[in-house]
Amino acid sequence: MAEYLEVAEARDLPGLRLALTAGVPGPWGEAAKGVFYVKRIPFVKVRQLPGEPNEELKAWTGHDNAPIAVYENERPRTTWTEILFLAERLIPEPALIPADPAERARMFGLSHELCGELGLAWCRRLSMIHELLSKVPEGSPGRAMAQRLGAKYGYEPKLAETAPQRVAQILTLLSEQLREQRERGSPYLIGERLSALDIHWAAFAAILDPLPDDVCPLPPFMRQQYTARDPVVREALHSGLLAQRDFIYQKHLELPLSF
Ligand SMILES: N[C@@H](CCC(=O)N[C@@H](CS)C(=O)NCC(=O)O)C(=O)O
Question: Which domains does the chain have, with CATH numbers?
Fold first, then answer.
């Protein structure tokens, strides 16, 4: 289990503080950890609780979700792009944003499809909320949590029904990119070296097919929730994509996961 500080313990510390959802391998949080890990940028973990008011975090950063990166007394960075640019500035090498403008545009486009609004993880979250609301009984705490997260992240039943199709489209796009890169002889998703896109895909695959328990220990209910079962999504999630995730974790990221 990872060591978390409470906001009150962390907010006056120097250096980098990273608020993360405690106990969950949240894709945005794991991606931020991966980016800092690859650059060997040390940080302390600060506890965020999913779906809760997180009042102290909000008072400190203006936000109540995760991840949030706060470096020294700079403004908090909350989005995947802000966190990536912060890491690039603090330790430029290894660069995770391609120098070549065409590669850079492709990387940000594909990463947006994974991490952005209505991207892969956003849509998977809509599906998870949809499933919870369809089976968790009225009046239960699990239902109240799903409703809170639904209100926060734009849940509407009609939108959730189209989410698996959109996830499958994004997976197909990523598979095509992987195939082209293989044909060029590159083991990475962009260019010839590791980029943020490789880290994003490795971290975000967790909400489709989490790594096994020996490296990503999850309570059964959480593993069940994180595992995509929709046939359209399963079909698009071909084994090459998961092998790519495994390669990036084994070669570049920290295992076992600690959240
Ligand atoms: N700010 C991030 C996304 C952060 C995000 O969606 N966080 C979710 C992860 S599921 C979260 O903290 N959920 C729990 C909560 O809102 O309490 C970005 O746009 O890059």
Answer: 7-90 (3.40.30.10), 101-252 (1.20.1050)
